[in-house]
Amino acid sequence: MKETMIYLLERPNLRDPVFVEGLPGIGLVGKLAADHLIQELNAVKFAELYSPHFMHQVLIKKNSVVELMKNEFYYWKNPNEKGRDLIIITGDQQVPPTDSPGHYEVVGKMLDFVQEFGVREIITMGGYQVPELQGEPKVLAAVTHEGLIEHYKAKLEGCQVEVIWREDEGGAIVGAAGLLLGMGKLRSMYGISLLGESLGYIVDPKAAKVVLSAVTKILGIEINMSALDERAKETEEILRKVQEMQRAMLEQSMPPQQEEEDRGYL
Amino acid sequence: MKETMIYLLERPNLRDPVFVEGLPGIGLVGKLAADHLIQELNAVKFAELYSPHFMHQVLIKKNSVVELMKNEFYYWKNPNEKGRDLIIITGDQQVPPTDSPGHYEVVGKMLDFVQEFGVREIITMGGYQVPELQGEPKVLAAVTHEGLIEHYKAKLEGCQVEVIWREDEGGAIVGAAGLLLGMGKLRSMYGISLLGESLGYIVDPKAAKVVLSAVTKILGIEINMSALDERAKETEEILRKVQEMQRAMLEQSMPPQQEEEDRGYL
Amino acid sequence: MKETMIYLLERPNLRDPVFVEGLPGIGLVGKLAADHLIQELNAVKFAELYSPHFMHQVLIKKNSVVELMKNEFYYWKNPNEKGRDLIIITGDQQVPPTDSPGHYEVVGKMLDFVQEFGVREIITMGGYQVPELQGEPKVLAAVTHEGLIEHYKAKLEGCQVEVIWREDEGGAIVGAAGLLLGMGKLRSMYGISLLGESLGYIVDPKAAKVVLSAVTKILGIEINMSALDERAKETEEILRKVQEMQRAMLEQSMPPQQEEEDRGYL
Amino acid sequence: MKETMIYLLERPNLRDPVFVEGLPGIGLVGKLAADHLIQELNAVKFAELYSPHFMHQVLIKKNSVVELMKNEFYYWKNPNEKGRDLIIITGDQQVPPTDSPGHYEVVGKMLDFVQEFGVREIITMGGYQVPELQGEPKVLAAVTHEGLIEHYKAKLEGCQVEVIWREDEGGAIVGAAGLLLGMGKLRSMYGISLLGESLGYIVDPKAAKVVLSAVTKILGIEINMSALDERAKETEEILRKVQEMQRAMLEQSMPPQQEEEDRGYL
After folding, report:
1. Measured between beta carbons, which residues in chain D are less than 8 angstroms from residue C103?
2. CATH hierarchy code of domain C5-223
3. Is the Cα dihedral A36, A37, A38, A42 positive or negative?
């Protein structure tokens, strides 16, 4: 295998599909959101992506069955006849950070593939690392074209989640969540990235929930969040303990303020 | 040389051959097993694989003769007219762990090659790192398809070696032992990986023996293990000393329990 | 995306254009010089270069708009009918130093591209790291062919900046500033590299100014340096403080002389 | 530039040429030997090899002229009408050790190239790192085919230098000195590698001299070694001082014996 390959299991007929991405990254936020969305919508797997840029290993799944590292495409047919369908991607991993050309190759193949199904709009989901959380995690938004800001703001109206639109330049979105928009733009696609604030070093269903709340609002669909809520509660318990420890440590030895600039989002 | 290349020395006519892999990895388990199998069966070398992804060096062999790093294919004609023949691969090295695309390329070429000889079934051999051995080393099994578990269990009946079939998800098989199954599966091949428990930091003929016992049981052949037994005895002596040292160290400074999760097998 | 790609926005008709390069490197000297030149000349962007060898990320620009990492080509039409036009390249980054083949690929594409517009002469700009600055920063010059030295010396006559021409062999010019000349030479192009002395660890508009003074002298054009002067003054203030700290440290613990050989320029 | 390229400056007509390699490596032994051979024979440069796998930089040569990193091919027409001609390669660098595929590509291109001129025999030169030198440095020999040992031993008869032929397996020849033989062997070429004992951490003309003595003996030519002798004397002086320091340090803190196994040669 010299190139990233996509195995098609079924060729669905999709109506103006939106491509929603959620792959492993900071706090596993994107992947948790995508997996939950797939589960709640009963989305159907229709393609698998394999890449020589993924780890050279197989995972041992349930009952001692092995599988190559992969990403998976799911589709969802909108029951509303006027609604748009979805293609959702999730997976085991992204290309390692040491292999930039691999990232570009994999994301290029993803775009080639979804373009065949008529995708024009892309929504990417991920985490946005912050040193400390204050209240509910917020969601950072970034778009492919300036003209889209009002479009998405209008769609997000009434969303319970606080969405941040930065005016100043700065920061980067690393990995597929960024590249899909950047490379999609070169193909006349458009879209938005929604990144949930997360401490990053913990699997973070709470951040996944706020991101998914914003995404479903944009998509005009509603899903049950209770499974994610439950995992979030467990995590919150862990977070509280971690933060208590951190505060104890900070009080002892470090200044309370931390450098927030130049961090990468994923 | 820009690509992995296979030099064919002879084109044997093989009857439904099983492909058995044993390349260097944890405890050299796979390679020891493959080399012993080749020696005992008097298998015949018929092809050599060279790759630009191997180390950029030649090895100095006996009598100052140099040879490129390589993997070697052997075949064995089953004297039983109804039995299946074998293709066995062994070699100097695997692609270094920093070069995932190289691994995928090399394993892809191996599969291309054995497919020409009609291979449908693959058995991979390797080590499975554990922090401490209790009694005889066990063998971890993993298969390409869930439907194969009963098939292999039936073949393994009566095998003196304890074979473990994990039900829960977890862990990975790194390198050729994993990729051959994962990538073979995409070509409608099937098979099993058999990994012997090993401390990993020592050449481990004992683990190789238990793996080979399981493999020969599956293949329905019998081979003399005495050479491997002898090397195993020597190693056991070394292991005993190492373990004594470890225990002495552990008693002094560390808690006896160690983290066993998320380890990779090879 | 498997290869470096250049997107053409406009196809200008250029008269014997000189290709001027200024990409990020030591002290950001080259990029500052190129950006200032573009701004003062009101040069027009006409092409963008994207590469899988750049970081796998998008930058978040003003108003939450994302953009792939890129380099940008600008052109300037010389109002003097007998004068030569310019192509200027600037950008977000160079290929990381761990990826030499990526550097060669990107620079090769740049040369392919500018050759289409008739470029024969190349001027590259960058920083040249020194342990301490004495007086005004000097500019190190290096050329593609020995016969050019007198040519450029004549053009530089009257330039306020001290330009150094080393007679002895030694040192290297790392990255695009070097490769453009070295690879251009293989295509019968010619040119000069002008590297401003810089401490390197600080954004250095003062070094950019001396480089740009030499470059504009060679090009026979005049531009307003006041914006660069202003940034240089700010930096000088910072530099003074840094140098005071350094001197204080040196007096305490280190010999005043430092090894200057075998440093790379960029 | 996506691939290693060779620029031909002249197409000489060569009689059964022997290909002699001497590129930078341990103690610069191979390069010193090749450069000296070229100089004494007045060999003529006829081709340059450039590679995207070399460092992404230009070297600043005499009089501020830049040149891409390169390897150079020289030829020598044997004045003896029945004698064989030579192709000699030297250069600025080898591919960095982190890029094995780059090594294979470059060496493959070298072999493609010299094959066009009818090369069948290859002699590679390099250093062979030892922890301490005892008396004159010896030369380690290794060949492509066992049948060649007597052939080369006969040619080396009367050579003042002690040539070692190891009977036991072990060690490796890293880089072009090894790959040229290993890869040449796959093309029905044959040859020998001659590696001079060297401490490795110092430019070592003395080791270059013993290697070159053996090589010229094999080639049946005689060259003046005085320039190399002179550099060797200077180095010997330095070596004496280094060794005195080492002995002083060893006496204080380390056991005199060192591990010699598993070292790589270059």
Report:
1. 52, 56
2. 3.40.50.10900
3. positive
Nearest CB to B100: which of A53, A65, A67?
A53
Chain A residues with CB-CB distance to C66 below 8 A? 142-144, 173, 178, 181-182, 185, 193
Domain chopping of chain C, boundaries: 5-223
Residue type, B223: I
Task: Using pLDDT thresholds of 50, 70 and 90, give the confidence band for residue D262.
Answer: very low
Q: What is the pTM of this model?
A: 0.90
CB pairs below 8 Å between A and B: how many? 96
- Give the Å distances, CA to CA, from B251 to B237, B238, B240, B248, C41: 21, 20, 16, 5, 75
Distance, in Å, from the CA atom of C203 to the CA atom of C144, rounded to the nearest integer, reads 28
Low-confidence ranges of chain C (pLDDT < 70): 253-266
The pair phi, psi for residue D62, each rounded to 5°, is: -55, 145
CB atoms within 10 A of CB D247: 12
> Which token pair is A127?
């985490």
Res. A126 pLDDT band, cuts 50 70 90: very high
**In chain D, which residue's Cα lies nearest the Cα of B59?**
D172
Q: What is the pLDDT of residues B89-100, one digit of tens each?
A: 999 999 999 999
What is the spatial distance between Cα A175 and Cα A265, in angstroms, rounded to a whole number? 9
Question: What is the ipTM for the molecules in this complex?
Answer: 0.89
**Which one-letter DSSP state was computed for residue C146?**
T
The amino acid at B135: G
Say whether residue A52 is in contact with chain B using an 8 A CB cutoff.
yes
CA distance A162 to chain B (A): 37
pLDDT in the model for residue C1: 87
C166 by DSSP, 3-state: which?
A: coil
Shortest Cα distance from C97 to chain A (angstroms)? Answer: 12
- Is C7 touching A (CB cutoff 8 A)? yes
Q: Has residue B238 got a pLDDT over 90?
A: no
* pLDDT band, residue B263 (cuts 50/70/90): very low
Identify which of B101, B174, B264 has the shortest CB distance to residue A52: B101
Q: What's the pLDDT tens digit per position in C64-93?
A: 999 999 999 999 999 998 899 999 999 999
Predicted confidence band of residue B240 (pLDDT cuts 50, 70, 90): confident
Identify the CA nearest to A16 among candidates A91, A92, A76, A60.
A76
Q: Please tell me which of the candidates A54, A57, A62 has its beta carbon nearest to residue B173.
A: A57
Name the pairing type of β-strands A18-21 and D57-61. Answer: unpaired
Asked if D87 and D14 count as a contact pair (C-beta separation under 8 A), the reply is yes
B104–chain A Cβ distance below 8 A for any pair: yes
Task: Tell me which residue has tokens 């790392």.
Answer: C174
Rounded distance between C-alpha atoms, residue B251 and residue B248, angstroms: 5
